[in-house]
C-alpha cells in the first residue's frame, strides 16, 4: 500500500524550480515544491502581480503585459527569467507552453506530442499545441471544416502561441476515458488507473471521476498496458496521460497523449496516494520510480468538479468577469480538497481561463464521494461573478449520472434546449417556498430591532402569523406562516412544511432544518422589492406580503426588448472581427461579428434576413455583457 503522506523532503533534487504558469496549477506545484524543500520562482503578467501564486513563490518575475502572447506565451521572456533566477528546472503545468516542443529544448522537462490522424466525416479539428477544449471544433461537412479551421487556428494561436492544427476522426457518442502514466529515465513505466472525463461542454471537461463506472478489470488492464507501451516506445519520462474514446462495447480507440500534468490529476492522487507533481520532479532529476505496478491501488472513489466563472444558463457556460467580493472554500468539510489560485478580492478577467478552482471530494464508495460533493457545492461561497455551481450540482444529482449512463453528449442530450436550472419536483418546490418565506420573515423581524431591542419599546407583542405571496417563475403561491420559537410552519400548495434554524443573516451560509432534514442555503441577494435569490438548487424568486402582492398586480409590465433587430454581446470580451457594415444585407444565420473571451471565440449571427442599420463596435475593442454591437432595420 502507498502512504498517502508521501510528500517529504528529498535531498539532492533541484534547488530551484521555475513555474511557467499561473492560477491553481502554479499554486499546486509551489505547494509540492515547498514540501520537498525546493525554492520556487513564479512568472506573472503585469495584471497578475498580486496573484496568489506570486505571493506563494520565493521569487517572482514579471514576463510581460496581460495578453498571453506577450507574457505566459512569451518564450524569450520566460527563458530570460530562468537565466536571471538560476532556476535549474521548469514545471510548465498545463496549457500555455506545456506542450511546446521549442520551449522544451530550453527546459529540463521533456515534452512530446503524439496524435492520431484519421480522415472521413465527421472529423475533429484541434490545436496541435494544447488542449482544454481550446482550438477545437467538430466538423460534419466541408463548410464546417472551413469555418472550424479559421476559429481553431485563431484560438490555438491565442492560447498556445502555435496555430498548427490536427484533423482526426470523430467518434460520435463515446465515453472519454484516459489513463494516467508515470515513467522514468531508466525504462520503468506505470499506469495509475483511469479517469472518466465524459461530462464535457464545448469539448472541455466539466466533471471527472476516478475510477470509471464503466471499465471492468480486463479492459482497465488492457488500456493501462497499451498506454505504458506507448510511453516506453517514445522513451517518455514524466507524468503523462493517454486519452482514449471508448464505445458502448468497451472497444477503445487511441485519441492522443498529453505530455504534461492534466487539470484532473488530483482524483488520481486521491485513489492512489501518489503526489504526481513530486513524482515529476523526481523523474526530471533522474531518480527511478519508487513503486511497482502491483503497488498501485484503487482506494475508494474521487470526483472533481471544475468551478468556472461562467453563466451556465448561456450555452452551458459563457464567461463572467468581475471581482470576488466574497469567497469561501468548503475546506472545513471532511475529505474535500480545493485547488485554486485565487482569494477574496481577486479579479476574474477576460485575459485568462475562467476556472476558479477544482473542487475534489473522495470517499470509500462513489455514493459517499457524490454525497460529499453535493455538500461541498452547497457550502461553496462565491460572490462577485456568475459561476457554474448550479449546473455542477444538477449534473452530479441527475439519475443518469448517478447510474453511470453517460457519454460526451450527456449535456446536450439531457438539456437539449440548454440548461434552465433545476426543475423542481412538488416537494422540493414546497421546501424552497417555505425556506424563502422563513428567510423573508426573519429579515423583516430583524429590521424592527436595534442592538437587540425593539425599535419602539412600547410596540405591541411581536406578530407570529403572516400571509405571503411568493412569485416563482410564472407561478404565484399564496401561503400562511406561523412562528413558534425558532420554528416556522408554512402552509403552501396544499402541504405543510416546518422550517427551523438560528440564522446569522450576516453569514453567507444559512443552515436550516426542513421537515427534519438538514439543508444548507445561501442567500445570494435580496432587495427592497422582496426579490430573493437563493442558492438552493440555484433558484430565484420573490416574496411579497399579501397586500404588496395585490398592489403589484396594478404595476405595468416591462415590455421585453425586440432582440430580432439588435445584436448584443452575450458576454464580456474582445471584438475579434466585424463582418458587416451599415447598408449590408445579411441572411439568417450569417456571421455578423466574432467575440473572444478567455481564449474562446464565439461567432454571433443574424437571427433573420435584414439590412444593417448601424455598427457600434470594431475589431480590438473590449465589450461588456449586454453591450449593443449591431442594429438591424
From TrEMBL:
Q: Where in the cell is it found?
A: Mitochondrion matrix
Keywords associated with the record: ATP-binding, Biotin, Ligase, Lipid degradation, Lipid metabolism, Magnesium, Manganese, Metal-binding, Mitochondrion, Nucleotide-binding, Transit peptide
One Pfam family matching this protein:
Biotin_lipoyl
Q: Where is the ATP-grasp domain?
A: 88-285
PROSITE patterns the record matches: ATP_GRASP, BC, BIOTIN, BIOTINYL_LIPOYL, CPSASE_1, CPSASE_2
Molecular-function annotations in GO: ATP binding; metal ion binding; propionyl-CoA carboxylase activity
Q: Which PANTHER family match?
A: CARBOXYLASE:PYRUVATE/ACETYL-COA/PROPIONYL-COA CARBOXYLASE, METHYLCROTONOYL-COA CARBOXYLASE SUBUNIT ALPHA, MITOCHONDRIAL-RELATED
In which pathway is this protein known to take part? Metabolic intermediate metabolism; propanoyl-CoA degradation; succinyl-CoA from propanoyl-CoA: step 1/3
- What are the BP-aspect GO terms? lipid catabolic process
Entry's EC annotation: 6.4.1.3
Q: What catalytic activity does the UniProt entry give for this protein?
A: propanoyl-CoA + hydrogencarbonate + ATP = (S)-methylmalonyl-CoA + ADP + phosphate + H(+); butanoyl-CoA + hydrogencarbonate + ATP = (2S)-ethylmalonyl-CoA + ADP + phosphate + H(+)
Stored InterPro entries: ATP-grasp, ATP_grasp_subdomain_1, BC-like_N, Biotin_BS, Biotin_carboxylase_complex, Biotin_carboxylation_dom, Biotin_COase_C, Biotin_lipoyl
Q: Where is the Lipoyl-binding domain?
A: 558-633
Names of required cofactors: biotin
- The Biotin carboxylation domain is annotated at 13-416
Protein origin, superkingdom: Eukaryota
The gene that this protein is the product of is pcca
Major location (coarse): mitochondrion
Write the protein's name.
Propionyl-CoA carboxylase alpha chain, mitochondrial
One GO cellular component term of this record is: mitochondrial matrix
Native organism is Dicentrarchus labrax
